[in-house]
Structure formats: structure tokens, C-alpha cells
Amino acid sequence: MSPAEAISSHTIAVLVDNEPGILARVVGLFSGRGYNIESLTVAETDAKANLSRITIVTAGTPMVVEQIKAQLDRLVPVHKVQDLTVAGPHIERELALVKVKGVGDKRVEALRLADVFRAKVIDAKTDSFVFEVTGASDKVKTFVGLMESLGLIDVARTGIVAMTRGGEAF
Amino acid sequence: MKPEESATTGADLLVKALIDEEVEVVFGYPGGAVLPIYDSLFKQNRLRHILVRHEQAAVHAAEGYARSTGRVGVVLVTSGPGATNAVTGLTDALMDSVPIVCLTGQVPTHLIGNDAFQEADTTGITRPCTKHNYLVKSVSDLARTVHEAFYVARSGRPGPVVIDLPKDVLMNKHEYVPPKRPVQHKSYRPQVRPDPRKIEQAADLIAKAKRPVFYTGGGVVNSGPRASKLLVQFVRLTGYPITNTLMGLGSFPASDRQFLGMLGMHGTYEANLAMYNCDVLINIGARFDDRITGKLSEFSPKSKKIHIDIDSSSINKNVRVDLPIVADAAHALEELIKVWKSRESRTDHKALKAWWAEIDKWRARNCLAYKQGKETIKPQFALERLYHHIKDRDHYITTEVGQHQMWAAQFLKFEQPNHWLTSGGLGTMGYGFPAAMGVQVAHPDALVIDVAGEASIMMNIQELSTVAQYRLPVKIFILNNQYMGMVRQWQELLHGGRYSESYMDSLPDFVKLAEAFGAVGLRCHDPAKLDDTIKQMIGIKKPVIVDVLVDKEENCFPMIPSGAAHYDMLLGPNDRAEKPVSEEGMVLV
Predict the structure, then answer these.
(1) Residues A99-108 pLDDT 10s
(2) Chain A CB contacts of B312 below 8 Å
């Protein structure tokens, strides 16, 4: 496969006006043009300036990723688009809530592994735990995978939030 | 004055805002949700309202108005079906980058989401078919939103903007605040000035070219008449050949020796072969659309590509280019000319001479040739005669979509921008007639002709009532072959001549139809009488339908079949036997 056809994953941060319909605009752009969304998170980040930050993980050939950024950038309420994967060193984090049901050895093992992964117990019953685990997606994925044989019954993940390392502002 | 005294209703405020945006004409259709606006219109005489007979036509008319004047076209429709009927027009305007502000009525805010009578999720429906849209939830936001909408519609790459107006917002009162100039949008600031280093690089590449070609599109027209003037100046400075896209016709005078005609699927032999064989391709305001490129892997394979476009998402979308320049066409051309002149750039005369010699050989194939006999009128002949009679008059041409549209692009000559209006991107049958109405409203004394097919014209035929009401002397020139000609042509070439549902049975008598609406109907089937009919049409100061009965099975050539490369052109009926269309090509539209 030539580099032009190689598909790679990109994490893109988008600063937008926090207005009704903005998420629909972004999601509609991806579905309408047939782009992938691997994960998408959005929340208000600056209440005074009424700004939200969207973090999208997408995958495509270099030409497609370039298109995605250009298409996002021309949406009227978009202030800034940054491809963190291209921008250089950056940090990605994700949070997951993981519910595990079980008694006896399995319960003990789940708790022990949670400790290894620095997952917090945020709800406990005699036959269940809800863990909160934070970290890079790989870590979260590995933890969830390990819980599968230990009584995993429910997972909720936030998707990735990310920003560049160092002293530069977005 | 106390605020309460200066406060006006949302509807009055809207009308004030439109007047402040220098709007003169609104194309619309009333309904329950927009009654307050119609009441405000009734009480003033600054804005003229043109009552169409279908909301789709309102948008096309506004497109015609906008494209022939360079101003923003304004549409006013009611909620629900009014808004959904406008969707085709909005999509058309989006694809062809036409500045439109479309005001849609909406049910009162407290009923939104309740499936109220004539409620539709207008902002939801129009999100993918507008450049931007707004739902105004408070009368205090109304004026600002209107001014922002006009700014967005006309700036950067122009496009349609919808403002959805709930009825209570139109009836509530608020003070009017005039717009601040210039508008400073908080996030939308398109780049219009080119990067000077890239202009230098472009000038280098252009000067060193041995087999160059300019390929320019609607972006030059949209940039304004100055861009066309600069284009002509620069192209003449270089002496290089130039081809236009369908949307770009008129930005360079068709009668100029350097003009190769339109390129693409039904473009000329010389234009397409110049694209294939060139070593430097200078794209200004065109977007490498699939009608232009044909088979992508064989598109202009030997060339260095410069692409100037105001929309960065148009760059590297279909075709990877070597030198992308994000800028407005006029600004970029102005800088290019400056650099070119300051460097006293010289072109490679010897190489250019050889290149022109090659192009002249392709030209000599005379790819648009056809044989006019004594019996039936060839559509190409009809258009050539039409052009002969209108060329010295102030005229505007619109078209519907299909064979007649391509023939019009091939056989009518466009000498100036903004005089040729056609649905290029979306290919909307039914565009031409209402667009012609919009042109005629803007240019009451001009000769405005909709070149139509008998199938397309039926799609917005109701507008005969509008042209009658406003005495708009639009001319509808129908090339009537009783088929959906382009569909029939594809069925002939791709589907074994099985003309499935493409025969137009039970057509109306167009002469009587015209008369029923108070217009004039003419018919012609004799090549010898064609000139007289056209002259008669031009002489009548009323709307006219001319039903020209043409050869039923004439095909539009040259043609690059879907999925084929530029050198793989069908030049005439005898070509097709040896060149069956590939299976990949069959899948393409």
C-alpha cells in the first residue's frame, strides 16, 4: 500500500460556538460525506465566550483527513480546527465506568486488577462494583477486556479528550 | 424616545433589516406562519415582492436575480411545505455557490417540536443544503441574525442561508438596531488574499510552462466582473489557451482565439486533449468536478497543477495539486499580474508555438460539427440561429437540464460573465424558467431566454402565471424532441436502446398552453422558417413559448462516457460501436 492510500487515525480538536445544532452540523458533515467517527466528545469549555470544544477521533487516508479538516473549518460556527496527531506530542485521555457483578474469587480478582490499573471504586454492593478508570484508550480497553471474564455487565466510555503538550494554547 | 415607543414588531424589524441590506426584491409565497411579514410588506413600498406559484421557483428566481446582478437573492416562504418545497432550490444554490437568504416561517416557539400544523424541522432539514442556517428564538436576536446571514451568504464562497422565523418572534416587539459596518463575524472570516510566496511560485511555474492551459470556473464569475477582466488580462499576457467549466462560461470571451470552449463530459475535443496533454494546469475557481475530470487516474497525468480557490475544502478533494492557493480569484489574479509584470516574465515562445500548433490540429477536427438537412431542425442549428439573432442585443440565457443545456453551452457564445445561468452542480430540471424570471426582474429591458427541453419545462411550468402577472417578457425556447433527451441518449449508449420511461407522451400543446396564460405561443418544425420564428419571438414584448420541434434522436457529442479518460471521447454516432462503456463506467452517473 502506498503512503497515499494508508489509513491512519487522527485526533482532531475543534473549537466551536456553543449554539443549538452545532453538534448536528458536525455529525451531519461526517455522515453526509461518508467519513468515520471513532469517537466524539463535546462539552462547553468557556461559558463566558460561549465556546465548546469537540474532540473527534477519525480515520482515513491523508487526503481524506485533509478534507475532513477543511470541511470542518468552513462550518460557520467553527473557530479553530487542530489536528493533534499532526501538531506533535499530545495527550489523550478517556474515562470509563465499568460495572462488574460477581462474588468470591472473581470479585477479589476484579478489585485487585482495579488497583493495578488505578481504577477507583465509585459504587459498591455486596455482589457488584462500579469502577472508574481513566487513561489512554489502550489502558481503558485493556482494563475492560480483563473484566470480561470477571463478571463485566456494563461499560460506559466518554471517548477521547486530548490536547497538545507544552505551553502553547489552543 | 423611550424604547417602548421605538420598538417595532419582529416582522417590521425584519423588513427594516432587509432594506438596510439594500434588498429591492423578495421572491416568495405567503402562508400562515409568515402572515405578519406579509402584513409588514403591505405597509411599505421599498421592497418589491414577486409572488411565485411554487416555492422551488422562488429560490430559482432568486438565484437568477443573484447570479445576473452579483447581489444576494432573497426568498420568503412559509413554514412546513413552504420550507420543504424550497429545499431543491437551496441545494441547487449550495452546489453552484449562489448567495441566497431564504426566510422561512415557523410555528410559534412554544409549539416547536409538537408536530403542530405546517410544522417541519426546517433547520434540521436544511442543515446539509445550506451554507448556514439559523432558528431565531427571540426578537432581540432577529436584526443581528439577518445582517449576519447576508454577510455569510455573500462572503467567501457564496451560498444559501436559511433564517427560520417562529411566528411569535415576528409579532413580539423590539427596538431595531442598524448593522455595524463592516461586519466582523466572530468565527467566519474567509481568506481572500493569497499567500504572496505562493503567487511567486505560481508565476514561476506559469512562465516556465511549455504546454500550459488555464482551466477556470464559476469562482471567477462569483468573484465579480473585475475577476473576469483580470482573467482576460492575465490570459492575454501569457498567450496561453484557456478552457471554461460549464459554470465558468462567460468569464472569458468565447470569441477569443485563446478560448478552447468548454471542457469535460460534453466539452470540446481541443479543450479535453489540452487538459490531458498539458504540462502546467492553472485552475482558477473550478473544483475538479467528476463531469470535468472523467477517469481520475488518467486525468491530466503529466501536469503540474496550480489550484486557486476561495474554499480550501475544494483543494485536494478529488485531484491532488502541486500548488494550492486559497484566495479570492480577483485578488489572486491581481497579485499574479503584478508579479508577472514586475518580473517582466517571458514565456517559452518556441514551445508555445508548437503547443498551439498541436491544439490547432485538434481544433481542426471540428468536434461540434453536425449535418443540418432540409427536413427536420437539428437542435444545434436551432441554437446557432438563435445566437445569430440575439448576439448584438443585451441578452441573458438560462437553461433547464439535459441535452439542450449542453448544446446551449456548446453553441451559444458567452462574451461576458453573469449572462449565462444554468444548474451545474445539482442538475435541476425546472431551474431555467424561474431563474429567467429572476433575471428579467433584475433586468427589465434585457432579452432573457430560457433554453429548455420539453421535459424540463414541465417541472416549473406553473410559473407562466407569474410571468403573466408581472408582465415579465421571458422567452422560453423549447428544443422539443419528445424525449428526455439525455436519458434517452444514455439508454441508447448504455442500455441497449431500451428507452424505459424516457418518452414524453401526452405533451401539452405548448402554443395553446402559452395562450391559456396570456402569453404568446409559436411553433416551428421547418428549418427554412426557423429564422422568422426567432425574429418574431424577439419582437414580441410579452412572454413567449417557442416550441421548436427538433430531430428526435439527435445525440449530444462530443461525449466522454462515464469512467473514461479525456482522450477517450466519442465524437459522433459512428464512434460508439468500437468503444463500449466499461462496467465501472456503467455504475457512475
Answers:
(1) 999 999 999 9
(2) 70, 73-74
